[in-house]
Amino acid sequence: MRFDVFTIFPGIFAGPLNESILKRAQEQGLVSIHLHNIRDWATDRHRSVDDEPYGGGPGMVMMAPPIVHAVEAILGPELEQTPVILLTPSGEVFNQDIARELAQYPRLALICGRYEGIDDRVRVILRARELSIGDYVLTGGELAAAVIIDVVSRLVPGVIDPESLAEESHTSGLLEYPQYTRPPVFRGLGVPDILLSGNHARIAEWRRQQALCRTRARRPDLLARAQLTEKDRRLLEG
Ligand code: 6GU
Known about the structure:
Elements: E1 2-7, H1 20-27, E2 32-37, E3 50-51, E4 61-62, H2 64-75, E5 84-93, H3 96-102, E6 107-112, H4 121-126, E7 129-132, H5 142-153, H6 162-167, H7 200-218, H8 220-223, H9 230-237
Parallel strand pairs: 1-2, 1-6, 5-6, 5-7
Antiparallel strand pairs: 3-4
The structure holds 6-chloroguanine.
6-chloroguanine binds at residues 87-89, 132-134, 136-138, 140-141, 144.
């Protein structure tokens, strides 16, 4: 999977994507991340990439020509088959379903918005899909792009152990059950006896109950999409 990121602050991406699992995925050639500075496509002597909004109002708007020229120059004829994503708090909210959809492509282009927004002609000309990562406001789309790269990369075959993928919440529709490891007692707190029992059927049943109760308490909206058995329903009702 190749990511092409268009930004005026490429330095933001130096840290978070170059450690741990994503570092190894890049070393193995499973994922590559290419950063492009939009300012390299500015044409005036100040290398401007923003200007005042037509119609007035506060702040600055990112200009269309440098962004469109940058994306066309880097993607070339592949632009046709490549999803172009524009990161903005007014986009559709990104989730695991969208991640799975994006992970089917060999290449993605991500445009990071700054200032008060991006000239809307960028969205129209590049047929871009606008995405947000949640209901809060970041100073720019860079961290949102990094989140999307992280989430999509771990769905690329070979990046993580397939068993970790299958069990996780947001796929099953349930939150994770609580986990414990050594030491057996810490600050006077033990570990649930059942986990030390060696009875794998009862452990699986306990974990299922924990996941169901946690999901009901914290994310009842997720329960609606979960695959619930009759036994699950009895537990939630009783
Ligand atoms: Cl994509 N951009 C900004 N600036 N803020 C956000 C966001 C994106 N997603 C959530 N908040």
